[in-house]
Amino acid sequence: MKTTEKSSIFDHGVFIKNDPEDLKIIDLLDFKEVLKNNKTEREFTNILKKANRINHEIEISHDFPLFKLHFQLNGNYEFCLKTIGSSKYKITEGYCNLFYLPNTKTKYKQIKQSGKSIEIIFSKTYLEQVIGNAYKEVFSKHEVTKSINKPFLLWKKNQVISLNLYNIIDDITNCKYNGSFKKPYLEAKIKELLIVILSDSNTKENKVLKKEIVKEDYDKISELENYIQSNLNKTLTINELAIFAGMNTSKLKQQFKIVYNSTVFKYITEQRMLKAKQLIINKNYSIKEASYKVGYKNPQHFTAAFKKLYNYLPSKLTDY
């Protein structure tokens, strides 16, 4: 298996990484393999933690099929899949997406990476083993289930990194185990992460299929969620949100609960705490600065809300 990266930032313009056929578990945070590879079916997964800022274009191609699950913890990530025309795709802070690159030496171009992200790269075989019979259900609409070599994004709209997902990512990136305990712990956490994100997404889609919510309303709630993410620093009222969604307040509360399994303001509070957490850890914001950035005029009120959600004070984040 071989990965080729081309960019003006590399010597001679090309960097070639030859991946061994028999990938072994080594470590997590140094661009190294994490799960053992199945020799015959090439089962593999990598975890890459990116904390750099890249303002150069990097063209990447693989001679083996893979899934790539990208979590953008802060900043933005832009890329272009060459076999899907010249369209650019962007994953913004707090969102994630999964895309599939088939075994056709598919090229994708990383246009810009700013901030921090986590990528999990794995094979079809590995994913089938993790989610079992749910594999066909999750990917029934996509070409990978038909063995057609076409790349795709699993979600047309990037998915929000939920509180649950952030907690799992924190467990992975701040692994507290060493030695022989590290491998099984990371394996378990990666499986948990994949199961949670795919199950949550599939549940939302099934609610539309089962007509618990009509697609038009589902789209409105999704747009509203984007609006919430962009305005966490502002005072958000239920009346304002209802007007934006084009619904009355009762319908908004009902439909939002169906899609996100949460009340509107519980969800907003969770997203504010997540945003503040990332600002404190990744951008060295003070607690006071972070509280203002996520819409709290009084840092003490922010601290109380944070403690209620996480069961520890935000001052503990300075230990990261």
UniProtKB/TrEMBL annotation:
Protein name as catalogued: HTH araC/xylS-type domain-containing protein
Keyword DNA-binding set for record: yes
GO molecular function ontology, one term from the record: sequence-specific DNA binding
Domain spans labelled HTH araC/xylS-type: 222-320
One Pfam family hit: HTH_18
Record's keyword terms, sorted: DNA-binding, Transcription, Transcription regulation
InterPro entries in the record: Homeodomain-like_sf (IPR009057), HTH_AraC (IPR018060), HTH_AraC-typ_CS (IPR018062), PchR_regulatory_protein (IPR053142)
UniProt superkingdom: Bacteria
